[in-house]
Design a protein that fits this description.
The structure is a homodimer of 244-residue chains. Chain A is an alpha+beta fold and 244 residues long. Helices cover 35% and strands 28% of the residues of chain A. In chain A, the strands form three sheets. In chain A, strands 10-1-2-11-12 form a five-stranded antiparallel β-sheet, with helices on one face. A five-stranded antiparallel β-sheet of chain A has the order 5-6-7-8-9.
């Protein structure tokens, strides 16, 4: 499993992902799940990947080959709209799934993969898209300014409580860390290190990228303070009538 | 969907459930999901139900019929062990699912149901069991002193952080309320009122039962304080290096 999310606030975009990949429970490894593309000053496109690792790797390879091939009819660098880029990634994903699905199905394995694509193209607004295994895609709304793929449920409640469009980029990233930390505690197939990528609107290049492990003081302190804060919040909950 | 949970602490047992039932998104109703059986002084058995409503109702009806029929070979009042009661409920559930599954399957509907059975039989230790749709069942461990059925993921992180065997019965119930409240915010198919049942060890009868709605001050205050407490905890999280 995997847990990736992207958050869109007024200041910009935050991308976050765990790094655990597993084929069953007895083959667990660490893979980066955040991929950065683009041309500084013209466009930044970030891709987050979840699902069958062979599928997601093949999709990234196909994207890179089109970028390397000047004669390719289209690539992440040719689109004028981000949703066209989302459509393109969805089509590649479908093509690869269709090739391998029949043989995988025989062994009860899913070829499916989901992606989050986000960024900004010069002259357009920044945005993020969730690309389903079926190739179709959705964007955020002002009420739900984030998208998730993979093991999404454990980490959702805190996002709903904290994230608003006016939330700062760093607060959004802290909330993503709490969301991933809650998920890592509940599901062993989601694990460190946590990758974070920051994009500030109109910079048209990645603003900042960082990786946090259990040995990183920021992550250790955040886990400790969050745990203490939750316990303090819990202790302040009201008593039942009969306890008074 | 549904969300039910039971918690086992040193002081006793807590049972909690939402009350929303839906057939698709356009037929939503309110049903009680906590059922109490037993003979005061001899045994208390509480059942929580999740899944196909026709299945869970038929299981409860069959249990009640056996209780009413003095000539029934077995009933919830005849077992010497709680796990035998769990086995009995699992068998009834299998029988009912087997009867209706073929016709339901034609329409793409699942006949499945899950149950939590908990309580105490005179002379034995109290316990709780999760009964799977397949009829088999598991109990808690000292490391995981709670069981959940239905929409379990949103509300799991807070249980893992708070619940220990030394947690008081009322704190366990408060934690169950927070867990259900987080789930209600994330999934509209889980909804109020919230039912709570308390059992103090060796009382061999239900200690207390209460129902909380959005109009109940306890639930309103708990939601408000928890939200405030979470925001305070969030504000105290450490800064990234570059924010200093």
């Amino acid at each position: 499993m995997t847990y990736c999310l992207a958050i869109k606030v007024d200041e910009g975009l935050v991308f976050a992902a765990d790094s655990r990949t597993n084929a069953g429970v007895d083959y667990v490894s660490t893979y980066r799940k955040i991929f950065v593309f683009g041309v500084p000053g013209d466009r930044l496109i970030v891709l987050l990947a979840s699902g069958n690792l062979a599928t997601t790797q093949a999709v990234i390879n196909a994207i890179q080959r089109d970028l390397d091939d000047a004669s390719a009819p289209e690539s992440l660098n040719t689109f004028h709209y981000l949703f066209d880029a989302a459509h393109y990634v969805g089509q590649i994903s479908r093509r690869i799934q269709t090739e391998f699905a029949p043989s995988l199905k025989e062994d009860g394995i899913s070829a499916e993969a989901s992606f989050i694509l986000g960024g900004q193209i010069h002259g357009r607004d920044p945005n993020i898209y969730l690309i389903y295994p079926q190739g179709n895609y959705i964007s955020t709304s002002s009420e739900t300014p984030y998208l998730q793929i993979g093991e999404t449920k454990y980490g959702k409640p805190i996002l709903d409580r904290i994230i608003r469009s006016e939330t700062s980029l760093e607060d959004a990233a802290r909330c993503a860390l709490v969301s991933i930390d809650s998920t890592m505690r509940a599901n062993i197939s989601v694990g460190p290190p946590i990758e974070l990528a920051f994009y500030r609107h109109d910079e048209l290049a990645l603003t900042r990228r960082t990786t946090l492990d259990y040995s990183t003081p920021m992550l250790r302190h955040l886990q400790k303070r969050w745990n203490e804060g939750l316990r303090r919040a819990f202790e302040k909950l009201p008593r039942f009538d009969w306890e008074r």
